Amino acid sequence: MNKQDFIGLDQSAWLFCGAEAPVHSKVMDAVMEYMIARTRGPRGRERNAKTEWACKTNLASLIGGRASDIALMSNSSEAISMAAQAVRLQAGDNVIINNLEFPSGVLPWLALRRQGVEVRIARHNEWGMETNDIMELVDDRTRLVMTSHVSYLSGTRIDYKKLYEQLRDTNALMLLDATQSLGVVPVDIRHTDMLVCSSYKWLLSTHGAGILALNPGRVETLIPTYVGWRSVVGAPGEDRFASYAMHTDARRFELGYPSYPTIYALECATRLLLETGIDNIERHVLELGGQLIELLKEQGLQVMTPDDPARRAGNISFAHADAEAIAGKLAVHDVYVMGGDERVRASIHAYTDSTDIGRLITLLPSVLDSRA
User: Fold this and answer.
1) Model pLDDT, residue 150
2) Other beta carbons within 10 Å of 148
3) Which of the following CATH numbers is that of domain 26-275: 3.20.170.30, 1.10.10.10, 3.40.30.10, 3.40.640.10?
4) What's the CA gap between 223 and 263, in Å, rounded?
5) Which residue spans traverse the membrane (predicted)?
């Protein structure tokens, strides 16, 4: 995966992948392939179906699962909400989240409070989240624990495999949000019950898809409360006004047609990631991230992301009250980072190089002095 294959990276330092991915030229071509398929009538629909299955197959390869256990939805917020309803929580049950979660991983659970479901919140310790801090909140009425693999806020990577092993002796399922990790570090569906991810960040695709992957051992126990024509078995017939049978695999969560332009883009992007190799991407990202952390500390900044490579991925954050202003000043110089929540976040992917890091570090002192 070469930097020159991305559009505009010859002019900018794109440290923004935790929010938006840059455009790869082949991904742009893939979207055009969808438009061409549209001109071919029924043959175009056949191409759409093949591309969708190829996309699911690529995703399955990235997470060590099966294509049939992956549902493609409109966004990760929808996927989390669908998962929240499928667990069928009752009054008196509780779910556990943590205070490093993005709002999409918080709001669906808060909405269940009106049904008598308790929401328990594990608190971070110096921007890190330990599995024991989560497990302390688990009891016999805990039905689900949700956590991000990598925090959008601090860049901390949680040991989700350890957490899952601890939860196996309880009544709780686990939902892992891999939006800030899938595509840049290894992720394994066998160490969670459900996994969600967005399409347009580290997976290098476009907006329009949310990924919901199910552990094969949990597929049949999770039944969505919503149903659409793609959720059910068989073509419409006379009995459709009397009954229906839902698919036995992850398709039960798919209500209607997905965003096929996104599917074409995602199939292409995931193929590129697989060809590059996630292990290779991880090594590059951790090495470059370690260099960035040291350089930020040399400037006296409060780095929120751990030094330990095992506890971080591609996001490197430092705390600052004027984070939005700093990001805005850097953007004027075509250095793109995320500023908000009183932290500045620089995201490193396979295409990032030392030149990008150098541009950021060179500009920061003057930006920090001129933020007013």
Assistant:
1) 98
2) 27
3) 3.40.640.10
4) 24
5) none
